[in-house]
Fold this sequence. Notes:
Helix content: 10-25%
Largest sheet: 4 strands, antiparallel
Strand content: 25-35%
Amino acid sequence: xxxxxxxxxDTPFLGLPVKGAAEYGTRQRPVEELRPQFxxxxxxxxxxxxxxxxYTPYDPGSFDICxxxxxxxxxxxxxxxxxxxxxxxxxxxxxxxxxxxxxxYRGQNRSRFERVMGLHDALEGGGFDDVLRQAFGDPTAVVVxxxxxxxxxxxxD
Length: 157
């Protein structure tokens, strides 16, 4: 979507004000709108951890949330974060959708799959870029567990 004059309302993220519009006119949303999707995955008893990378790619005018992943209790211990990316068939325990209109689900728990993909879509949609960059930095790898959030610099080359 393109919103050329969209501005974020004066909403706080962890006590910090958020103002302005993201690049390319994506309407920025307050962090509270991310809470339902975030907590649905965070409080799922089968999810151990999840995370993503966020960085400004080679075009300095853009910011990206990518490489979103989820580790469930069903994943093999040797699975790497790259094995768990939510693209290209990552996180096998979640299953997948297929069909001409992506109407068929193949897996064990469709509601868990939909909760995780809801968070995935919210993060990748661009509407929370400003608050995520302000909260966690750039370039950063973010890992979320029930006991806290760990951030570390990442190399996106």
